[in-house]
Amino acid sequence: MTGQHAKPNPRARPLLVLIALVAGFLAGLALPGAGVAVQGATLIGGIWLDLLRMTIIPLVFALVTTGLADVLSRGAQAGALGWRLAIAIVALLATAGIVAGLLVPRLLALSPIDPHAIAALAQASGGAPAPTPPGMGASLRAMIPTNIVASAAAGAIVPLVIFAAALGGALGTMAPARADALLAPLRGLAEAMLVIVGAVLRLAPLGVLMLGVTLGATVGWSAVTALGYYLTISFLLSLVLIVLCTFFAATLGRVGLGAFVRAALPPQLIAAGTQSSLATLPTTLAAAERLGVPHRDAAVALPLAVSVFKITGPSHGISAGLTLAWLSATPIDALHIAMAVPVAMLASLAILGVPGQISMYAASGPVAVALGAPIGMLPVLIAVDPLSDMFRTAANVTAHLAVTCFARAETRQPQADAGEGETVAAAP
């Protein structure tokens, strides 16, 4: 007799991880910081973190190479529309990374966290920081991986990403039959790493529970304030990106500002509720048509944007990486941030289609390593990530609609907005 098992709710695991973090933290508050129980929790949590760390290098290399190759190949297949879309996507990804690089350090500097609490958080984050670049000249030269194997062995993520991007770009312009000879095993490597990460993250409730015990026992309520501040920064970044995308559509996309705000509101609300850009696609398609984008063009541009573009990817990766550096008291300068922005951009392209919590790990881990920050607290940030995901999804959907308007800006004809007679689009 064959039994039937109910499929797990996809939201159940993030909720379980969040509950584990809260339970572990409350338990840690009642335990002595130097007690055997806390030492045991630190050991178990550390082992779990090491299992995650071991996948970063092969996962980043495989995902960046195959992801960039796929993006270039899709852009070529979509013709002129695809290339205009690609230009807009790259420009907005860079803008998102730069905005985060400029805003987040200043917001973190305004933190209400006591310096002594930061020192305790630095100790709780565990592990020595990853190797950091030397001086500016040496750092610029070190970005070129003369020995990719040595760079991977040293954990130098920036040279590794540059090589992977160059390789992926070359493969994306080659004939598919020839490129697949190398892309196929790299896709297999990426899939295998994702299987390993997924298996480790199945133990996330236990691992995060142990990390929560350590936080509660060694840091106390200051950890709650730090996480709340991190979430506040994430909310602010999402709102800033929504505003930027709105003005991008109104200027370069050549649609009326008021018309775009009204058309984007239904997709934004559905995106916030479902936390899924794909589930919002039908509503976003209707919004694009309302803004004067022909159905045949919107039907190509929007699915392509949804599949390859998350504007919050670079900003969220930079925000998480800088927060990890802040929590570990790792000094960060402008050069570190400048080197991390392209890593965050490529990581956001590489994680497309990667599920749930794995995507944040794959996107934020490389950025933290590029900044020289330890990733010991990253699972804790992942645990609270669902609380900010609704805002990021709304920002992503706004960006999808904006780049679709831009891709057709040169060919659309003037069209009045129903109800108010407002010009929605003007031919150049």
Give your account of this protein's structure.
The protein has 19 helices and 2 strands. Strands 1-2 form a two-stranded antiparallel sheet. The chain starts with 11 loop residues before the first helix and ends in a 5-residue tail after the last strand. The protein has a single domain, classed as Orthogonal Bundle (Proton glutamate symport protein). It is mainly alpha-helical. Helices cover 75% and strands 1% of the residues. β1 and β2 form a beta hairpin.
Main features:
disordered C terminus; 1% strand; mainly alpha; 19 helices; 2 strands; two-stranded antiparallel ribbon
The CATH topology assignment is Proton glutamate symport protein
Measured between the Cα atoms of the first and last residue, the distance is 69 Å
**Mind telling me the C-alpha Rg?**
22 Å
Structural domains: how many: 1
Shape: globular
| Tally of DSSP helical segments | 19
Order of helices and strands: HHHHHHHHHHHHHHHHHHHEE
